[in-house]
Write a structure and sequence with these properties.
Blueprint (H helix, E strand, L loop, with lengths): L4 E6 L4 H9 L4 E7 L3 H11 L4 E2 L2 H6 L5 E4 L6 H10 L3 E5 L9 H10 L4 E4 L6 H11 L6 E8 L19 H16 L5 E7 L2 H5 L7 E7 L5 E7 L13 E7 L2 E7 L3 E6 L5 E4 L4 H4 L9 H17 L7 H19 L5 E2 H7 L19 H4 L1
Parallel strand pairs: 1-2, 1-4, 2-3, 4-5, 5-6, 7-10
Antiparallel strand pairs: 7-11, 8-9, 8-15, 9-10, 11-12, 12-13, 13-14
Bound molecules: nicotinamide-adenine-dinucleotide (NAD).
The site of nicotinamide-adenine-dinucleotide has 22 residues, from loops.
């Protein structure tokens, strides 16, 4: 077993899940935690039996014992916190979304290139048991040629509108919530380019003083004609998660189809030579959901934290890295531009060109490219 890696965590709200993950991992040790809120620091120290905390992010960066910084601060601070961690040659795990706009994406790519640290985005849904199994089946070719991917993320997130930072000028349900479904689509169809879609602002969002679309429907297409849909609703009551899983990813291929669900630990398949099968992972519920019901999902964080350690130990590129994450953000911006222009088709590649990012990004990596799949590393 390689020596334990030493983690510094900044932002102790959602950062609670990465602390739980590190505490249960043989690969990691928490060296120190940081939050502007001193009371929260003390609370987390006590909860996880830690001894070092600070309210100054620079203390984490200056600590030679810390090799990896995990960033769980509000979205608009991710750029600055990532740039400073990379400049200090720390490895970085940054929660989603990596950035709250594409402004600064070029600086982040440059910083990642110069740093000896590696950066991975914590796209948690990729690391949920049904999604891991679905990925494994796609990598094994059980779906045949992929033809269509339908992903959704719907949740009644009206509570989120009361955050002091959540409704700022850059706030968007797409960048903060729909990103989970959009990331799943790009995981399977990395070159998805063209998108058209509609959104509407519900009276519930208007009542909170916001006019950002919260009910969203999109159709996407790759240059070779593969199709995807992405949908989400964020301020409307759902029926029941057994009937309507918050997150779902349905993949249809020439040889089979599958559907992975969240938070139900279920995965449904129909592959060549088999009838319909349902795979039940509820025995892993204690691993994935450790506090506050299913609203926190520390097991996913544990899976990506351990995956990150494996990548660092073996010199492999963790995924999604900064380039892949920025391409997904460009897709989100294309989706928003389509919404703003009454469903007019918009291309991700055009957004990248508009931000002068095309030449800074490596060619899109396809499913069977050089990178090692998550499922093979877990
Ligand atoms: N599934 C997921 O991966 C997932 C789920 C929820 C939230 N998130 C992300 O996690 C991040 C945090 O969300 P949250 O719900 O915990 O928000 P939050 O507002 O509850 O917590 C953010 C914390 O960061 C601290 N903070 C702010 N500025 C700081 C600074 N300069 N230095 C140190 N600490 C600072 C605040 O005091 C606060 O405790 C967001 O980017 C959010 O999108 C990811």
């Amino acid at each position: 077993m390689p020596p334990k890696r030493r983690l510094g965590v900044v932002g102790l709200g959602e950062g609670r899940s990465i602390l739980s993950a590190a505490r249960s991992s043989p690969r990691w040790q928490v060296a120190a935690v940081c939050d502007l809120d001193e009371t929260l620091c003390r609370q987390r120290i006590e909860e996880f039996g830690l001894d070092r905390w600070t309210t100054a992010y620079d203390d984490l960066l200056a600590d030679p014992k810390i090799d990896t910084i995990a960033i769980y601060t509000p979205d608009h601070l991710h750029l600055d916190h990532c740039l400073r961690a990379l400049a200090a040659d720390k490895h970085v795990i940054c929660t989603k979304p990596l950035l709250d706009s594409l402004i600064g994406a070029d600086r982040l790519l440059d910083a990642a290139r110069r740093s000896s640290g590696r950066l991975m985005v914590g796209q948690s849904t990729r690391f949920f048991e049904p999604m891991i199994n679905q990925r494994r089946d796609v990598e094994a070719g059980r779906h045949g040629e992929l033809v269509a991917v339908d992903a959704h993320y719907s949740t009644d997130a009206r509570w989120f509108l009361s955050r002091d930072w959540s409704t700022g000028t850059t706030f968007s349900w797409l960048w903060n919530f729909l990103i989970h479904a959009v990331d799943l689509v790009r995981w399977y169809l990395p070159d998805v380019d063209e998108v058209t879609g509609f959104g509407t602002v519900s009276p519930n969002t208007l009542r909170a003083g916001l006019d950002r679309p919260d009910s969203l429907r999109f159709v996407l297409r790759t240059p070779s004609g593969q199709l995807a849909t992405v949908s989400g609703n964020y301020t409307l009551p759902g029926i029941d998660q057994r009937l309507e899983p918050s997150i779902g990813c349905l993949i249809r291929g020439t040889e089979g189809s599958s559907r992975a669900d969240y938070p139900g630990l279920t995965y449904h398949t129909r592959f060549a030579g088999e009838g319909p099968r349902s795979h039940d992972f509820t025995a892993l519920s204690g691993h994935y959901f450790r506090f506050e019901g299913t609203s926190h999902h520390a097991g996913e964080y544990q899976n990506y934290l351990d995956y990150f350690a494996t990548c660092l130990d073996s010199g492999l590129d963790p995924r999604p890295g900064p380039a892949e994450a920025i391409e997904t953000l460009a897709l989100l911006e294309a989706m928003e531009r389509s919404l703003a222009h009454d469903g007019q088709p918009v291309r991700r590649s055009q957004i990248l060109a508009d931000h002068n990012l095309l030449t800074l990004l490596p060619p899109t990596r396809h499913l069977r490219g050089r990178s090692v799949g998550v499922s093979k590393q877990l």
